Amino acid sequence: MNGKRIIIVTGGTLGDWALGVIQENDVLVGSDRGALYLIQHGYKPHISLGDFDSVTAEELSLIRSSSVSFIECDPIHKDLTDTEMAFNWALAEQPEQIILLGALGTRFDHSLANVHLLRKGTELGIACSIIDANNQIIVMNQTTRIERGRYSHISLLPLSLEVTGITLHGFAYPLHQATLQIGQSLGISNILNEPEGLIELQTGLLLVIQSKD
């Protein structure tokens, strides 16, 4: 599936905003209740997978019959979250890009675990992101260009113990060869002055969160 985008829709907070992310040729993956969201909005998931403990028996029957492929697992004897199962499936397809929708929500533990999933894709050279109504999140381990788009703020947080050699171009608050360590808030709430900015780094994993109020 080189050149393809895979959209994983999972069971966190979803809304009409998510429909605007989906494009015609995207490969759609439904994770647990995210599969129901896709089907209720007229989409046929390429694959639906999970333990489906958040849907009714009637909804599960609809998901099974409305998906091209369907994988159900035992909720007690599985080691991975539904979202990680879907993410691992997507990684194995070697797409150009993976986007997670519904990966953030009221369960902070699940939200944080889903953010950590982005590291897997980054290390394999696959562009991965989490998008919700107000945020876009990526993990970077090399120099990366960032488009301002619809976001007013951009925050940088280390995902490894430290990130070194951070230099920013096109930002309101510049950094030059800076080091960020876990527990520091120096990288919070920067602003892109230009339509596009450049983030350079030397070592480490950097969490980049673009937000709008």
From TrEMBL:
A molecular function GO annotation: thiamine diphosphokinase activity
Keyword Transferase assigned to the entry: answer is yes
Domain Thiamin pyrophosphokinase thiamin-binding span(s) in chain numbering: 149-207
- In the Enzyme Commission scheme, what number(s) does this protein have? 2.7.6.2
Write the record's keywords in alphabetical order, separated by commas: ATP-binding, Kinase, Nucleotide-binding, Transferase
EC top class, as a word: transferase
Q: What InterPro entries does UniProt report for this protein, alphabetically?
A: Thi_PPkinase, Thiamin_PyroPKinase_B1-bd, TPK, TPK_B1-bd_sf, TPK_catalytic, TPK_catalytic_sf
The record's annotation in SUPFAM superfamilies points to: Thiamin pyrophosphokinase, catalytic domain, Thiamin pyrophosphokinase, substrate-binding domain
Q: What is this protein called?
A: Thiamine diphosphokinase
**Organism listed in the record:** Paenibacillus anseongense
